[in-house]
Amino acid sequence: MSSPGSGRGPAVRQGLGLADLERENALLVGIIEAISAGPELTLLAARVAPLIAAATNTDVCFVHVLDDSGRSLTLAGATPPFDKQVGQVRLPLGEGVAGWAASRGEPVVLVEHKERDPRYRYFPQLRGEDYTSMVSVPMSSKPSGLVGVLNVHTRNRRDFTDRDIRLLTSIGSLLAGAVHQARLHRRLTTRERAHERFTEQVIAAQETERRRLAADIHDGITQRLVSLRFHLDAAAGALTDSSEFAGAQLARARELAEGTFDDARAAINGLRPPVLDDLGLADSLTSLARSLDALDVMVDVEDCPLPEHAEIALYRIAQEALQNVVKHARTRAAHLRLRREEGEVRLQVSDDGRGFDRDGMSFGDDPASGGYGMISMAERAEIIGGRLEVTSRPGLGTTITARVPIR
C-alpha cells in the first residue's frame, strides 16, 4: 500500500534514500530557477519547498527563516496544504526542534516518537501527529551565516542516512545565500517605501504651508489693498481742481496699490496654483506655460504615471525653471517638454538665451554654482528619488532636465 502524497511504498522509499542522482540534479536546476525568478523571500521559499520534498522523497517540507531580530524563526515556505500557514507560525530561537537546530547549528534527526523528544514542540496547524520521521538542518553558509532552517517529514518511519543529512545540509547552504540576498532586498524595499512615505509627508507639509500662506495673503493683504483703493478713490473724488499736487500724489498712491495688489495675486498663484487641484501634471504644465506673458513657451507634454507628491515636485521645478528664463535668460523663447522614456519621467525646460558657464551632469549643491533657484530645483528632484541636470554655455542657452524614475 503506497503512502499518501508520495505514490511510492515504504520499500521503494527505503531503497532510493535521498541520494538519487537524477532527483538531485533536478533539485539543483529547480533551485537555480527559483533563485533566478526574483529576490522576493516568500516567493523563493514557496518555490523551493516542493522541490526539496520531491528531491528528498519526503512528504512535506517547511522552510523557516530567521527574522530580522535574529531571535525567532518564521515559516516562510511550505508544501501544500501547509502553504496556507506561511507567516503564521513563529518559533523562538532555541525552542522546538527547528529552534534547537538553528541555535546549535547542528542537524536533528528524529526517526520515530518525536513527541517524546524534549526539543519537540507541537503546532496544531502543522499536524505533526500525521508524520513519523523528520530531519531539521540549519540553512547557513560562511558569507551569509545562519538564515533559517529546513525541515522535512515523512508519514512512514524512515532511517535517514549520513548521506541524506549531507544532501539536506548542502541544500541549506545553497539556499542560504539566496535567502540572505532576499532578506537584504526586503529590507531595502522597506526602507525605500519608508523614504517614499516620508517624502510624501514632507511635500504635503510644504504644500499645506503654501496654502496657508496663500490664504493669509488673500484674506489679509489683498483685502486691505482693496480697502485702500476704495479710500484713495474716495479721497480723489473729494479733491477740488486747485489741489493738483494732492491729486497727483493720490494717483501715484493708487498706482502703487494696484501694483501691490497684482503682486499679491501673483504670489497667491505661485504659492498654490489652482490647476494642481483640478488637472493632471501635463495640463497643469500647459496652463503654467500659457500664464507667462513674458515668454513664448513651446509645450510638448504627455500624461505620465507619477504619485501626486512627485507631480507637485516636478511642477515646482518647471515653475522655477521658467521663472529663471524670465529673470535671467534675456529671451522670449522657451521649450517645455514632459516625456516618459526608458523607465523614467523627464521634465525639460530649455531656452536660447544668454546662458552661463555651466556644462555638466548631476547639478551639485554649491550655492556659488547657480544660486538658490538651482539648488531648490535640485533638492526637489532628489527628494522624490530623481536628479537634476543643467547644461549651459554662454550665448548658447540653458537646458534644465529633471529625471524621476518610475517605480
UniProtKB/TrEMBL annotation:
CDD domains: HATPase_UhpB-NarQ-NarX-like. Member of the two-component regulatory system NreB/NreC involved in the control of dissimilatory nitrate/nitrite reduction in response to oxygen. NreB functions as a direct oxygen sensor histidine kinase which is autophosphorylated, in the absence of oxygen, probably at the conserved histidine residue, and transfers its phosphate group probably to a conserved aspartate residue of NreC. NreB/NreC activates the expression of the nitrate (narGHJI) and nitrite (nir) reductase operons, as well as the putative nitrate transporter gene narT. The keyword Repeat does not apply. SMART domains: GAF, HATPase_c. Keywords: 4Fe-4S, Cytoplasm, Iron, Iron-sulfur, Kinase, Metal-binding, Transferase, Two-component regulatory system. This is Oxygen sensor histidine kinase NreB. It catalyses: ATP + protein L-histidine = ADP + protein N-phospho-L-histidine. The keyword Secreted does not apply. PANTHER family: NITRATE/NITRITE SENSOR PROTEIN NARX-RELATED. Its cofactor is [4Fe-4S] cluster. Transmembrane segments: none annotated. GO terms for molecular function: 4 iron, 4 sulfur cluster binding; metal ion binding; phosphorelay sensor kinase activity; protein dimerization activity.
